[in-house]
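Tutorial, part two.
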Amino acid sequence: MTSQPDIDAQTQIELEAAAFRRLRQHLMQDRTDVQNIDMMNLTGFCRNCLSRWYQEAANARGIDLGKDAAREFFYGMSMSDWKANFQTEATADSQSAFKQAFAENAGTDKKG
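Running the prediction step on this input gives:
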């Protein structure tokens, strides 16, 4: 096993933030073709989950950030604009798998 470099707490925060920004760029700019429902079915989270986790982190710090504002921050546009530009119709199989994935991952008060 490779040893981990000695990283101070502030640098770790900055690296984690950079990784989050890159993930956001990947999902919002590089792979707009990947549908939220497919992400949820395969991974147990999607763009909406990431925006919700961002909202929860802000709220925990005393920042009043609502669901729509968090989504707009994460998506870089309103949810209705995202859907109009990038969301496709889900198949019946995808919708069925989503019900199970949502119940297992987001349908409870699990914190990621």
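The chain has a mean pLDDT of 89. In part three we will examine how such features are distributed along the chain.
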